[in-house]
Every structure is written in structure tokens, then in C-alpha cells.
Amino acid sequence: MLSRIETFFRRLRRNLSRSVWLARLLRLPVSEGSPTRPGLIMIQIDGLSQPQFERALGRGELPFLRRLLRREHYQLHAHYSGLPSTTPAVQAELFYGVKGAVPAFAFRDHESRRIVRMYEPEVAARVEALLVGIGNEALLAGGSAYSDNYTGGAAEPHFCPSAMGWGPTLRAANPLVLLAFLISNFYSFVRVAVLLLMELGLALLDFVRGLVGGYDFFKELKFIPTRVAISILLRELCVIGGKIDISRGLPIIHINFIGYDEQSHRRGPHSLFAHWTLKGIDDAVARLWRAANHSAWRHYEVWVYSDHGQAPVRSYQAVQGYSLEDAVTAAFEKLGTTGLKVRAQGAGGIQTQRVRVLGGQKIQRLFSVLGINGDEADDAHPLVAALGPVGHVYLPQDLAGDARDLVARELARTHKVPLVLSVEAPGMLCARTEAGEFRLPQDRAALLGAQHPFLDSVGEDLVRLCEHAEAGDLVLLGWRDGVTPMSFATENGAHAGASPEETHGFALLPRDTPLAAREHEYLRPIDLRKAALQHLGRPDPQPRGVRKRIAATQTDILRVMTYNVHGCVGMDGKLDAERIARVIARARPDVVALQELDVGRVRSQGMDQAHLIARYLEMEFHFHPALHLEEERYGDAILTHLPQRLVKAGPLPGLADKPRLEPRGVLWVAIDLHGREVQIINTHLGLYPSERVAQVEALLGSDWLAHEQCREPVILCGDFNALPSSPVCRRLGSQLDDVQTRAQHHRPQATFSSRLPSLRIDHIFISPGLEVAGIEIPNSELARVASDHLPLVAEIRFPDGPGDKR
């Protein structure tokens, strides 16, 4: 009854959803199909390193992401960006499986021979065309992309360099539809207006501080509208679009929030202004997550990750008193050459150009980003491309190798560039510092520090970067171990280089995410790609990901779960065995006692639910049908990854005067826990009090708990349909202990119903002498919707330790 009521209200809410109606009014296609199809929403928080993420969590700036970790069974992973540590390189690896696709954010194009930047639409499109040509499957195929460097193969890209906004869709709509769009999102637009005013006030304060700190007046003035547009307007437009796409059931949606990265470039990754932006991003993630949980067309997972981090930096010019271009010019003068003029890619950083993704020449004029063109081709002069802490120096074609080495030594020793790299042989770099020469990758510990969290990968990726076809003859880095990070642009926060903070992103994923086997504990973009493809049922042709086997973490503790799965029909009316399996996987039990499973029944589409759940969890199982009508079966199961043997399975007595009552049964297996045999008994008692009394007496009799083979330790699990104060539970309590009352510092909690837990009818009883180390009742959004019961998990300790106790 409760599930029917919730299903009704869910349908009502969907029918009244403004996102659903907007999709219909705009005539956007809907991805129809089974409501249990997997979907994926990937949310990128641009530029947020894991150390800064953890700092923000501790300061209460990310309350929803903290909830994901504490309540929704998410796990935090370190995410190594690869090199260069920039969004174009990370998204190329994520979307197309290509590492090191670009040598930097700004570099010389080998065809046009001019400096290009990855925010330029034609440049981003050309690089993506090369990625497509490699032949790997595009991750975002059939989905949508928001504020990304590439489309990723998305059918509907928005606010990307090569696909600006919703222009075509909105222009095709009639005026009444546009009016409906404005009215239906009135609250959102009011919210945007209020946030814009707040952000404008903060921006003005930031403007004054910038002037006091000696920054250029006009640059500071120009940054105010830029900051407001990126931090608020673009973020809110992405959320509105993402919610519409969720209501349509697109298979994959990728959204990049760039506000924090924008603020960090200007004021530094530790700044209050950058961290203020995180509060709005956290709220945006929460709204998308809620929309995903009410989707009618798919079962969405929400993954949150950052592509890279940022390091606080000083500009090279502020440290040295002259620009990098001046340094390169002086180094060439040591060659005795005359008439060589070093050409540079121009001053400034990337942050003031990001409003281009809002689209349209009017927007670009408003935010002063027109007239930015690459430098003219010129092979007779040295060329410098340095946008951030990675710089490329392109030498004249007729310059000999000895001259290159002299320039490199001058830049490192005289002009204090922290690290100057050049290719010495295939797979080997010559690295020059003020202290002398080194070789990479073998000397990576000396150059990058033995404590670098991604040391092995960084060494290989530096070689890949320098060997890129469009890399400079010399590659300059603004950091090495023991040196304060520098940027070759004027900014307070930077990324692209190899420092720990720049390369240290994070990934916040559900515990049961299928991650591929890998050499390191940390992830990199290609690992996220493989996991995403597997989740969507599109396995990568490379070795597929495998789900981590659930295993006991301590030899003297056993995690036991009892769970009534309601025939795998959730509170939303969806039949989904895999969803039940995900609830179980995230709780990481060693033994699972399940009730109300269907096998071969018409009402559940003929599926073998016990087998499906066990296969997902990589467990073995025993199933006992309490009800068996021709080919249809219905009953209970015990699943475990531990060695087990079936001891006995059979029926429980009913009531003679009520022959049509649902039959009830018992399943008994013995598991081997590191040499100790443990008896596990699973049951589901009847609905009538007198029926339950008879069934409990049978359980305590010689056929079951008093059986000669039922030697301690014993664990009895199930849905008893009885409260702790009932005669049934008191009778069982005379011989066994209720885990919820035995656990120290634990207040017993109800498990039924899942939405409003008010009845404690699911129980785990254990034989005397066992200890209860902990109790967990998963109460995540997934658990609350997957069944009408919540699972109960008990950590049971064997005080005398492991060993053969049989």
C-alpha cells in the first residue's frame, strides 16, 4: 500500500515537473525505454584539487557532497589528471581514451604555424576531429555536454567552444513557448538575479582589494562582469539544461562547473572568493542529484569529479623582474645572433576568455573577448607559447642542436626557469635546472620529489608531453621539487604543470562503481572512462572493469545483512533487481539473507532474482522457494563470498484453519569463516500472531536451532513481522541475543517502511558469547526507494579469534 501511494505521488510530481513540460514544449526528443536502464550524470568541478576539496568539506562549504560521503555510500578517490594538467587534455582522455592529446592550453599549430588556444572554437573542433579519427568510441554519444572543451560525441552539446548555448532550439520555438520557459523557470531566474547581485557585491569588494594590491585598474574592472557570468549565470543555465535532459532520459549527461577554477586563477585556489563559489556548485549538484532520483526513464548514477587541481603561484615576471619573452631573448643573445625577435602568444590568462562559451557576438562584446587572434606564422624567429606554468619555445628551423642546449642552459641557470626540458632520445628527456642536468623519467624522484603522489605516472607523462608533435623544442615548467610554483602568465592560481596540487584531482563515486584493475590506487581519466562505459553497458574494447569482490576486512568480524527486497519492486513502482544489488554492494556485507525473492514468476518478467543479485555481487548463493507453483517460485536466499554448504531447507507450519495463507520457509547454510564454521539461518515469518508463534516454536525445535548439527556460533536472520516486544521476539530472546539491543552506544532503529521507518520487524539474533561490533541501517536515497524495507547490517565479532572451532 505504501509503495502504491509513493508511486502515485512520484507520477504526479513528474507530470507537473517544469522540466518535463519544457521538454515537451520545445519538442525535444525523449529517450523512451525501460525505466531501469542505466544512465550516468558526470559533474566536473573544474580546478578543485583533492586537498582543497577536503578543506572545503571540513569548513562546511560542501554540505551536499559531505552527505554523499556520509549517507549515500560514496567513496572518495584520488584522481590524477595526467599531463598537461588542463581540461582539454583530461577531457580528451575521458571522452576518447587518448592520453596527452594536447601539449598545453596554448601551443603552435603545426599546420598554420601560429599560436592557438584551446578556448578558440576552430582549434577545439580541429583537435576533437583528430581524436574522433583515432577510432575510439565517444563517451558522450547520444547524450549532452555542458561547458566542456569538446562535445565528446554528445548529440546535444551546449556552451562548448564549438557549440554555443541553446540558440537554435530557442530560436525555433514560438513566442508562447519562450514565455512558458520564462514563467516555468521564474524561481530559477529570480534566484539567478539575487545571486548575481550578491556576486556583484563580492566582485566589487574583490575589485577594491585588487586595486589596493596593485592590480591594473581596467583589468580588475573587466573581471567583475566576467566573474559574475561564469560563477552564476553559466552555472544556472547548465543546471536548468541538465534537469531538462534528465527528464528526457538521455543516457549520459556531462556538466562542467568552471566557477571555482575561474576564481582560483584570479585570486588563488585558497582564497575566500574561490571557496565562496563552491557553495553554489554544491547546491547545483544537489539539484541535479534530486532530479536524477526522480527520473521516469532511467536509473541514473551521479558521479562528481575534478579534472585537476590548482597551485598558488607567483608570476615569473614578478619573481624575475622581466617577462619570459625577455628571458628567451636574452638567452638567444648569448648565441651572438642579431635581428632575432622573440614572438609571444600575448599577455593574460585564460579566465577572461571563458565567457565566450555563453555564445554570440553581443555577449563577446559585452565581456571584451573579441579580437583575440593567433600570432602570424613566422619560422625565422623564436616563438614562445606560455599560458600558465607550462611554456613552449619554438626555435628557428635552421638552429643547430648545440644552440638549443645553450639556450636551455641559459634559461635554467641565468634566468631561473625551474625546469627546462628537451627530447634527448626516444623515451628520454634532458632536464636542466639551476643545479645541473638530469634525465627523465629515471631522475623523476630527484626533480619532482620522492613524495609526489603520482610519481611514476608523471615521469612517463612528461616524456609524452615533450614528444608531442606540437610541443616546443624546449618545454619550460614553472615548478620542480623545492621551488615555489610560478606561472608564466599574470595569475594567482595556475595549472597545467606537474606539481602535486595541479595534478591531484578527486573522484566521488558510489562504492560499487565498477573500476578496472590498475597498477595504482588512484584513478586517472581513462579509468573513469572505462567505468562509465561499463556502467552504461558499452564495454570498452580494452580489458573491462571488474567489480571489487566484497570481502571480510577482519578475520574475527563478520558483516551480516538481512534484507526484505519486496520482489525487487521499489517504492517508485520500478522492478529492478540490480538496484537491490547496488544497495547490498554499498553496505559491503560478507553474508546476505534475503527475503521475498521471485524466480521465474510472470509478475517479475520471469527473472531469477537470486541469481541476478548474486552474479552482480560476485557471490555464491542458496535459494529456497517457500512457494512453488509450476515454474514460478518465491522465497528466500543466502548469499556469501565465503565457502558455504547447504545444511537444510524446509517449510514452517501455518494455521490449519487458514490453508490459503502464504507458505513460509527456512534456509540454513554453514559458512567457513577462516577455519570457523558459522551457522546462518534465514526465515520470513507469517502475518498472523498465532501463525508466528507456531513458526518460532518450530524454529527452536529439534529440526532447526535444537538440531544436533546446529552448533554455536549461530546467526538467525529474517523478516519476523514482529516487534521486539512481541511474544515471538521475547521467545527468541530467551535463547538468542538481539543484535540491536546488544550493540553498545546504539539506539535500536526501525527498518519498515523504508520511507518512514517506524516498525522494527527485521531482526538478526545471535548465539550468546558473540559480540556486536557495530550496527548499520543503510538509509541512502537508493535504499529508501529500492524496497519497502531498509536493510539491517550487523558486524559480529568472535571474541576468541579465528581458527578451527568446529
Automatic annotation (TrEMBL):
It comes from the Bacteria. One of its GO terms (molecular function) is catalytic activity. InterPro entries: Alkaline_phosphatase_core_sf, Endo/exonu/phosph_ase_sf, Endo/exonuclease/phosphatase, GPI-anchor_lipid_remodeler, Phosphodiest/P_Trfase. GO terms for biological process: GPI anchor biosynthetic process. Residues 561-789 form the Endonuclease/exonuclease/phosphatase domain. Signal peptide: none annotated. It holds the Pfam family Exo_endo_phos. GO terms for cellular component: membrane. This is Endonuclease/exonuclease/phosphatase domain-containing protein. It comes from Thiobacillus denitrificans.
